[in-house]
Amino acid sequence: MTLSFLVGSIPFGIIVAKAKGVDLRKVGSGNIGATNVLRSMGKWPAAVTLLGDIMKGALAVALGRYLGADVFHEGLFGIAAILGHNFSIFLKFRGGKGVATSLGVLLIYSPVIACMTIALWLIVSFFTKYSSLGALVSFGLLPLNLFLLDFEHREKLFIGVMITLLILIRHRDNMSRLIKGTERKIGQTG
């Protein structure tokens, strides 16, 4: 699981921004994720960041599976990658919000639920123009979706609850701004 944490710690947003001569922590929201990269540098750098962050989560769960971990421990490999992203050792234990890395975890861990989570995120984000609200709604429903639709492995519910809690904790400021009406919309700068 240490390796999963290290892989999760790779700050793709920072790497992509640095390649463009930008210090991502000093532009936009200061976040290291794809949404801030989109606001600060455009679609292609954001797509590369998103893909890198998704791959971290997927790789962690795949590693657990390869090592013969049971379903619960596979999920813990994924949680380790999310924690690595959120508290990167390369960024003095600062990091992102974990949405893309969590999606990567789900893509391997529970593919049907991953597709539902992605669809909900996209739908809410498209209609509201708030990526944070899309994340909050889609991951807020994650435990319910796992409970209702992933019958085979009930231990996945605990992992789903952990992922949801990590998303909610990392989005506290976003929730406050959404309530106050000061949250930035997708593509909105400044």
Describe the fold and architecture.
This protein has one domain. Helices cover 71% and strands 0% of the residues. It contains eleven helices and no strands. It has helices at 2-9, 12-19, 34-41, 43-66, 71-86, 99-109, 111-128, 131-140, 142-149, 156-170, 172-180. It starts with a helix and ends in a 10-residue tail after the last helix.
Descriptive tags:
190 residues, mainly alpha, 71% helix
Sum this structure up briefly.
The protein is an all-alpha fold. It has 11 helices and no strands.
Shape: globular
Number of strands: 0
Distance between the amino and carboxyl termini: 38 Å
Unreliable parts: none
Which percent band covers the strand fraction? under 5%
Could you estimate the helical fraction of the residues in percent?
A: over 70%
Broad structural category: mainly alpha
Instruction: Please tell me the total number of domains.
Output: 1
Tally of helical segments: 11
Query: What is the rounded Rg?
Result: 16 Å
| Largest sheet features | none
> Average pLDDT, to the nearest integer?
94
What series of H and E elements makes up the topology?
Answer: HHHHHHHHHHH
